[in-house]
Predict the structure.
Amino acid sequence: SAKVEQNIIALLGFEAERTELSQRMAEIDRDFAKLQKIGTTYEVEVSELRSRLEVVVRECDKHVLRDQSCRAKESLAFVLASSSEEKGLSDRVRSLESACQQAMAMPSVGLEATESLRAELR
């Protein structure tokens, strides 16, 4: 009978441990469910942030392309302006060269060319 009592005491101890372990498992299951819910919430938030960032990146790309386009247009305008200024300058140089050649040929033309040159330099 002492052996039966020992077995009953051991059985009650095991039952108490099983109950405690069951409660602990239930707590772990609740914690796991909470963590899954939090994980899902974070996934949704990350997805929303990623979408917003993609929109921002597209907008930035548009601004960068617009800025690059403006700079390219400004560069082209500068090159064209420089080219036309050089053309205008070379036209004037040719005109003066022609006037000088004529001046060497005829003194009166030289006087007119000199006056024209003076007027242009003012």
User: Anything to note?
Assistant: The radius of gyration is 47 Å. DSSP finds two helices and no strands in the chain. The first helix runs from residue 2 to 105. The CA atoms of residues 35 and 101 lie 96 Å apart.
